Amino acid sequence: MSERKVLNKYYPPDFDPSKIPKLKLPKDRQYVVRLMAPFNMRCKTCGEYIYKGKKFNARKETVQNEAYLGLPIFRFYIKCTRCLAEITFKTDPENTDYTMEHGATRNFQAEKLLEEEEKRVQKEREDEELNNPMKVLENRTKDSKLEMEVLENLQELKDLNQRQAHVDFEAMLRQHRLSEDERQKQEQEEDECETAALVEEARRRRLLEDSDSEEEAAAPAPPRLALRPRPTDILEEAPKAKRKVESWERSVGTLGSRPQLSGLVVVKNTDPGCNSRQGLASPTSKGRRTPPSPPPPPVTGAQCLRGPPGPVRSSKAADRAPQLPGTSSLSQLGAYSDSEDSSGSN
Question: Biased-composition ranges for Polar residues (predicted)?
């Protein structure tokens, strides 16, 4: 694959450059170039101002039979931006500038005129000195006198400025430094005074607080009057939330320390052992005296509830099982179930 941008070309062995036909182009051929206006100009047709630096698509050609030291001179054709009139100007290599030729006028430039005048005077002086040696001496004498006068005028201006100014910069700087030091010292003293005043005020406030606390401790506290309840306080109390009763509590009862039906059950103790401990006689001992029997063994609370060991009690006695005040409905249900079991066994 060949290169896209070919730098080296192939020349065959039998290549003869003299056989290549030469292209004959006219000497006044024009090229289209992009340039900027070299100076300010004004169109003669419509009076439009064209400023330096404005860009144009111009036509460029070589001026025939004109050259400066072998350098060709070029002519440029542009069009006015308003009326499209043709404007031409050409290069001036002698003055390193451009010359207006047709279609517009170059605006006045004082700087350019001044430079041209200086060049003309300098050229005339050189021509005079070249043919007259005495003129050279006179010109040198004039130049030295002019230089002396310039130096004298400069010195007079300096003396005049010193007399009118009367300003000592060193003294000004010294005074500024002193004033700055004094200002900083004054600010520091003010800060110290303010800090001391704040400390003194805080100490005084602390002493006043200590003295007030001592007086309060020494003086007895006045008795406080009891607040009397108002009749309308009951209206302001929040209603108590009722506890939700579960379904099993409705059937069995609550497990609290005090059952709900404890007031409806009448406890009747039928155990003779429990009655003997309490110093009471049994119901069969009415009307006759019996010899004292030996003391029975200690009876526990469960035995008091279930009865003495021996013959099985009847269902009627089981139904009248005693209930302690601290027992719940669950314990009563257990006692009833025991009585049913005992009756079933009989």
Answer: 272-285, 325-334
